[in-house]
Specification:
The complex is a heterodimer of chains A (142) and B (388). Chain A has one helix at 15-21, and strands spanning 27-31, 37-38, 53-57, 61-70, 83-90, 95-99, 113-120, 126-132. Chain A has a single domain (15-132), classed as OB fold (Dihydrolipoamide Acetyltransferase, E2P). The radius of gyration of chain A is 15 Å and the shape is globular. Chain A is mostly beta strands and 142 residues long. In chain A, the strands form 2 sheets. Chain A has a 5-stranded antiparallel β-sheet, with no helix packed on it. In chain A, strands 2-1-3 form a 3-stranded antiparallel β-sheet. Chain A is built from 1 helix and 8 strands. Chain B is built from 12 helices and 11 strands. Chain B is globular. A 9-stranded mixed β-sheet of chain B has the order 3-2-4-7-1-8-11-10-9, with helices on both faces. Chain B is an alpha/beta fold and 388 residues long. Chain B has helices at residues 25-40, 62-68, 84-97, 140-155, 159-173, 187-191, 220-225, 255-266, 283-292, 301-304, 324-328, 336-348, and strands at residues 7-14, 49-51, 74-76, 103-110, 195-197, 200-201, 211-219, 231-241, 275-278, 362-370, 376-385. The chains are: A mainly beta (142), B alpha/beta (388). Chains A and B meet through β2, β4, β5 and β6 of A and α4 and β5 of B. Bound molecules: zinc ion. Zinc ion (ZN) binds next to loops of chain A.
């Protein structure tokens, strides 16, 4: 089953992030002061409160930190059936909520290596989801 | 300054309804207000402070004060989801201790069972994370499931251990004639119930109920003049825990901080606690609270709850003797109010005889509002006998 790809709420703070998704790039903010990467995008670093946050292109690789197969979707996911909601730890450090796709939901596991894929919302921006990294899949830039 | 011993819970009332299709939400607030005040031997005229959460109809407490005809000189409608009623007990006690008011009324009412559910986070307009969570199908059971799955991975916790929490709640609920689910269940029944968000099954989830509850807090002079046995507020703590820009430990809740502050203020330790009311929106919610409040070491919760540890009256840590949110009541999707109400019953010695903890002197009530994994409100209240 294809997951819904709802159009996100886009604000002035998050516009840069979403625009990059249209060209298949996952941007995250890195704090110029404490050097931590921050997820989700915002005006200031929640760790050191510096407002000097720089957009940087993430590797798009990460590890499943936790995952659930849920069948209780709401709103746009009301009729989505069973799907994987996951917390993926990006190689840059922060964890983001997302979906793991292109595999059997039951086979997603904590510790699994994943890479980003973009699902077009039809509104000029795309949702960053993740799929398992397998030997058979060529990884752009790797 | 400390609030220790400065305020007393004089009245506590849980609405007996679980499906109230013909009640307006303001009427539910009114019914529980009258119930709690009658329990205290007071009336609406005596009330000079009013507390409700942001989900109460109208702007803050304005509409409900108008509807109830309250003369209010102190008010607080802050919100932390379902944990907020424990926070309000602390705020009311602080206001009483400061002489800002003398009779504080706290009410909760809602009808999620007979109206459609609201989307998480949609209470007050778009929050900053709005673009990054609903689009991936975030739902309440799923974010609790993420914490449960990680706890299992990290500490070896099992579904059978989580099920013990539901089993204990169900054994208690059989004695509560108002409980929505009164039939005891087994571990086997819990783990074979349909999966909702893995690893959480349907029976790991709390009930959805209409209804509400209310509390009345008073100062020491008023408490002394009342016929009713009051319950002393010994300590309170609260904490917001969140995602730390994506660096959070999803197996840990803000109970670590709210519990420590409450224990310090009450000048007691977990070993002194005779009864706990633990927020149990899901079984895992209670499990994490047991660890984070210090009733066992981090990661030991799954083993701690075995062997009837949570079962009243003789378990090592009797919990949720009304049946909790897992079986009895979770009015308005906010389980903090009923956690305090049953704790008050326990300290007064008025729980059902089958589950009354003998010699219950110190009770703790704890709330976890909002969402594990992303952001949560946590509040802890410690109660003692009037003469404590
Ligand atoms: Zn920083």
């Amino acid at each position: 089953m294809t997951l819904p790809a709802p159009v996100p709420d886009i604000t002035p703070e998050t516009e840069t992030f979403w625009k990059a998704t249209a060209t298949g790039r996952l941007l995250i903010q890195r704090c110029a002061e404490c050097e931590r990467c921050v997820w989700y995008p915002r005006f200031l670093c929640p760790a050191c409160h510096s407002t000097d946050l720089l957009w940087t292109e993430a590797s798009g690789r990460g590890t499943v930190h936790s995952a659930t197969v849920t069948s209780r979707g709401i709103l746009d996911y009301k009729d989505a059936g069973s799907y994987v909601l996951a917390l993926v730890e990006l190689d840059e450090g922060p964890k983001m909520l997302t979906n793991v796709v292109e595999c059997d939901p039951a086979e997603v596991f904590i510790g699994q290596r994943v890479e980003v894929v973009f699902h077009d919302t039809g509104a000029g921006v795309a949702l960053p989801r993740f799929r398992p990294v397998t030997e058979a899949v060529a990884i752009p830039g790797a | 300054m400390s609030i220790r011993g400065k305020a007393f819970i004089a009245g506590a009332y849980e609405h007996p309804g679980r499906e109230l299709p013909d009640h307006s939400i303001p009427r539910i607030h009114a019914e529980v207000a009258l119930g709690a005040l009658a329990d205290a031997g007071l009336t609406l005229v005596d009330v000079d402070a009013y507390f409700c959460a942001a989900d109460a109809p109208g702007l803050g407490g304005l509409a409900m004060a108008d509807y109830l005809g309250l003369r209010v000189r102190y008010t607080d409608s802050s919100d932390m989801g379902g944990s907020v009623y424990l926070s309000h007990v602390g705020h009311a006690a602080a206001a009483i201790a400061a002489g800002k008011c003398s009779v504080a009324l706290i009410t909760l009412g809602g009808r999620p069972r007979t109206t459609s559910l609201r989307a998480p986070g949609q209470l007050m307009g778009a929050p900053p994370e709005a673009g990054f969570e609903p689009v991936f199908g975030l739902n309440v059971s799923a974010v609790y499931a993420l914490a449960a799955a990680r706890h299992m991975y990290r500490y070896g916790t099992t579904s059978e251990q989580l099920a013990e929490i539901k089993v204990a709640a169900s054994l208690h609920a059989q004695h509560n004639e108002n409980a929505l689910l009164r039939k005891p269940v087994t571990v086997e029944q819990v783990v074979s119930s349909p999966m909702v968000s893995s690893p959480l099954h349907r029976l790991d989830c709390c009930v959805v109920t209409d209804g509400g509850g209310a509390l009345v807090l008073v100062n020491e002079d008023i408490a002394r003049g009342l016929d009713r046995r009051c319950v002393k507020v010994l300590g309170h703590g609260e904490a917001i825990e969140h995602s730390h820009g994506g660096w959070q430990d999803i197996t840990v809740t803000g109970a670590v901080r709210s519990g420590r502050d409450a224990f310090d203020e009450a000048r007691v330790t977990p070993a002194d606690v005779d009864y706990v009311g633990l927020y149990d929106s899901f079984t895992v919610t209670a499990l994490l609270a047991i660890e984070d409040l210090g009733f066992c070491a981090k990661g030991e919760g799954g083993r701690f709850v075995l062997d009837g540890a949570l079962q009243a009256p003789h378990g090592v840590l009797p919990f949720n003797t009304d049946g909790g949110s897992l079986c009895n009541n979770h009015p308005a999707n906010r389980g903090g109010m009923t956690k305090i109400i049953e704790a008050v019953r326990q300290v007064r010695g008025e729980a059902h005889p089958a589950v009354q903890v003998p010699g219950c002197e110190i009770a703790l009530a704890h709330g976890t509002g909002g969402w594990l994994t992303t952001r949560m409100g946590n509040a802890t209240v410690i109660l003692g006998r009037e003469d404590a």
